[in-house]
Structures are given as C-alpha cells and as structure tokens.
Amino acid sequence: MRNRFGLAFGIGLAAIAIAVAGIYYMQRGAHVELTGRFLKVRLAPLDEHSSVAVVDFRFTNPSDYAFVVRSVTVVLEDASDASADGSSVSETDTARLFEGVPLLGQKYNQTLIALDKIAPHASEDRMIASRFEFPESMLEKRKRFTIRIDEVDGGVSEIREK
Question: How far apart are the first and last CA of the chain?
C-alpha cells in the first residue's frame, strides 16, 4: 500500500513539474524589456551652472511583443551614490542644441522619444540628450549614467554605463 502511494505521488510531482516547465517555456518571450549598452557619451557646458549630456546607445527588444516608449530619462549617479534625473531634450530642441553647441560634434542617431515603437527582436542605435543643473566638471566626475526607459504598460528598462 505504501509503495503505491509513493509511486502515485512521484508521478503526480513529475506531471506538475512538466506542466510548470511547459508554461515557463511558452512564456519565455512575453517579458517586455530592453537590453543594451552605451556607445558614446558627450558632455558640454551650457552655462556655469548647467550642462548637457548626449548619450548614444544601442538596445535590443528580445521579447515577442513590441515595446512602446512612455518616457526616457537619463539618471546621473555621482561618486557618493547620490542620483539626479536630467531633463530630457525633445527631438526638435536636440537639432538646435547640436547647432548651438559645436563642442558636441554631429548628431549620429535619432532621439528615442515617447510613443516610439520598438519591434520585437529588433536592435537599434538611438540617442538621448539631457540637461543637468550641474557644472560639466561634476558630470565628468560621475560614477555612471543610467538610461531609464518606461514602457506604456508599466515596464521599466535600465541601461547602465559601465
């Protein structure tokens, strides 16, 4: 009697494990998140108390669903682990920024903005320009920048500078 119970219990556990593994396998592409890396960071002073950071980055959408951007923010983390959000610059103002601040060089990539749709399994190069109310010297002494990309359905992806 005891042997039958153990056998039935083992078969039941194996069936549950197979069902759970199958569900996880079927849902492997359902997690909407962007992965990526920084390509280039350019800094320039705007005045004595503020500066701009232009970050070129590459990202990939590994999921089976499109990623629709709600907002993009550049976060500065300084040496003391304090963080500050930058003010993102719009696409039209970015064109003016590159014209007005030749120290930044040329604009290589299109700006990642709200309501941009990233196709499933797509990789793209984009940029984000962000204004900080700190002098350029403070940005140069940073620990790292992080790009935080919010998705319209509530997901958040972060791409960190190494």
Answer: 61
Burial of 101 (0-12, 13-18, 19+ CB in 10 A): middle
Distance CA 45, CA 20 (A): 55
Tokens of 86: 């930058």
Burial of 109 (0-12, 13-18, 19+ CB in 10 A): middle
pLDDT digits (tens, 9 = 90+) for 104-144: 999 999 999 999 999 999 999 999 999 999 999 999 999 99
DSSP 83-133: EEE-EEPPHHHHHHHHHH-GGG----SPBP-TT-EEPTT-EEEEEEEEEES
Q: 3-class DSSP state for residue 2?
A: helix
pTM reported for the whole predicted model: 0.79
Q: Which two tokens stand for residue 99?
A: 């014209």
Cβ–Cβ under 8 Å, residues 97 and 88: no
Give the residue carrying structure tokens 């700190």.
134
Q: What is the 3-state secondary structure (H, E, C) of 43-66?
A: EEECCCCCEEEEEEEEEECCCCCC
Q: What dihedral do alpha carbons 10, 12, 15, 21 form, nearest 10°?
A: -80
